[in-house]
Design brief:
The complex is a heterodimer of chains A (219) and B (219).
Chain A lengths: L2 E5 L4 H12 L4 E5 L10 H4 L9 E4 L2 E4 L1 H11 L13 H36 L5 H21 L13 H4 L2 H7 L6 H4 L2 H11 L2 H6 L10
Parallel strand pairs in A: 1-2
Antiparallel strand pairs in A: 1-3, 3-4
Helix pairs in contact in A: 1-3, 1-7, 4-5, 4-7
Chain B lengths: L2 E5 L4 H12 L4 E5 L12 H4 L7 E4 L2 E4 L1 H11 L13 H31 L9 H21 L13 H4 L2 H7 L6 H4 L2 H11 L2 H7 L10
Parallel strand pairs in B: 1-2
Antiparallel strand pairs in B: 1-3, 3-4
Classes of the chains: A alpha+beta (219), B alpha+beta (219).
């Protein structure tokens, strides 16, 4: 029975899981959720994710939500294949992967997400004007986080070591959208962060996902 | 060689890790970090956590930070002893635990943490708690707790009928929360209240709670 992922290709969180599924070559079906009609806030979807957010995943009788928990489940389920995003055979490496996954969660995302929300979501979905004060405050925070990344990436090729991992993957979709805004300079101004971004965004699995990240594109 | 945990007994993030260490009956040494002297923002601590936050853990030559990553490492390293916090024998249960660990991270923590900051940290920085911030976040937290109330009416703990790391992650911030005027958010919800009373009475947490006296006279 195939995995079903409920979400939309242009959503940062859905796409995060899509990238992971593609890395593992896993078979899955993307089941669209109609956000404009509020499908994610109605009973059938709330039964999958009581917080009313995409994505959700069904694998047989198991239902999961929270994109980072889903991607971790996928990596666990398909471990032992040639793809190794959790480094589970090596407890030390696995621990460092977990650390940098938490960094993405606790340091990076809270800083980048208001920039994404104000620059892309507010004008496109709500027809409003970005709140520049929020953007500036978040850009300052994100800059400090990226300074730490730039230093770390001088001693290892990827965040958790010299190997690509889920810690790097979890950054892909927000940074992809950031690069469509003027705040992409935060990445480009930091040479090692820029090189890391160019590397991880050129991976075949992400190249399958990026065309779906169309928010903000002129049609 | 015993684990070394660098942090402060009254810090909720340090306590999160210590609770896990006690549940797993793991030997460790708490090495105090002098926050008031800014030790966490200087070398050598910055070499342990470049984000300058406690706690950090050393296990031989492995150095980790981010309390949730540290706790997950401890739960994994000692998975065959002490209480079972990660349900690794069952792919399904382990996945449910990860979902609700992410819920704490992405839904619960962002709502409760500003409330704790306003009541405990703001006064130290010389200003009164900001009621607008408190109100905004109690509203968010209430909605999260409504989901918890429903879930805990169906399972005894968050990830199922078993205590797990997902429940443990809530302990230390909620402990401080219960000392604020906002405690009614927990007490008004019968299943949440019963869950809180259960998890906060566990011996491993009791060992840690008595030192969590931030803001009290003499501290």
């Amino acid at each position: 029975m195939t995995i079903k992922l409920y979400g939309v290709a242009m959503s940062t969180c859905t796409a995060k899981v899509l990238a992971c599924l593609h890395e593992y070559g896993a078979e899955f079906e993307l089941v669209p959720v109609n956000l404009q009609n509020g499908e994610h806030k109605q009973p059938a979807f709330l039964a999958k994710n009581p917080f009313g957010q995409i994505p959700a995943l069904e694998d047989g009788d198991l239902t999961l939500f929270e994109s980072r928990a889903i991607s971790t489940y996928v990596a666990e389920k398909f471990k032992g294949s040639s793809c190794d995003l959790l480094r589970s055979q090596n407890p030390k490496e696995a621990a460092v992967v977990k650390t940098w996954m938490e960094v993405e969660s606790q340091q990076f995302s809270p800083a980048i997400s208001p920039i994404f929300y104000q620059s892309i979501i507010v004008p496109i979905l709500y027809g409003g004007s970005p709140n520049q004060a929020i953007i500036d405050e978040s850009a300052a925070k994100l800059g400090k986080v990226l300074d730490v990344y730039d230093k770390k990436l001088s001693s290892s090729k990827y965040l958790a070591g010299d190997f690509y991992s889920l810690a790097d993957l979890h950054h892909l979709t927000y940074i992809y959208y950031l690069m469509k805004t003027p705040y992409g300079k935060l990445i480009n101004e930091r040479p090692r962060v820029k090189a890391w971004w160019e590397d991880i965004s050129s991976r075949p699995a992400f190249k399958k996902v990026a065309p779906g990240l169309t928010l903000g594109d002129k049609n | 060689m015993a684990l070394k945990l660098y942090g402060a007994a009254l810090s909720p993030c340090t306590s999160r890790v210590m609770t896990c260490l006690h549940e797993k009956e793991a030997d460790f040494e708490l090495v105090p970090v002098d926050l008031f002297a800014g030790e966490h923002k200087q070398l050598p601590f910055l070499a342990k956590n470049p984000f300058g936050q406690i706690p950090a853990l050393e296990d031989g030559d492995l150095s980790l930070f981010e309390s949730r990553a540290i706790a997950a490492y401890v739960a994994e390293k000692f998975k065959e002893t002490g209480n079972d916090l990660i349900r690794h024998q069952s792919l399904k249960e382990a996945a449910e635990v990860k979902v609700w660990m992410e819920v704490e991270s992405q839904q619960y923590h962002p709502a409760i943490s500003p409330i704790i900051f306003q009541f405990f940290a703001a006064p130290l920085q010389g200003y009164a708690p900001d009621q607008a911030i408190i109100d905004e976040n109690t509203e968010k937290l209430g909605k999260v707790l409504d989901v918890y109330e429903d879930k805990l009416g169906r399972t005894k703990y968050l990830a199922g009928d078993f205590y797990s790391l997902a429940d443990l992650f809530h302990l230390s911030f909620t402990y401080y929360f219960m000392k604020t005027p906002c405690a009614h958010l927990i007490n008004e919800r019968p299943h949440v209240k019963a869950w809180w009373e259960d998890i906060s009475s566990r011996p491993a947490f009791q060992k840690v709670a008595s030192a969590m006296n931030f803001g009290e006279k003499g501290n």
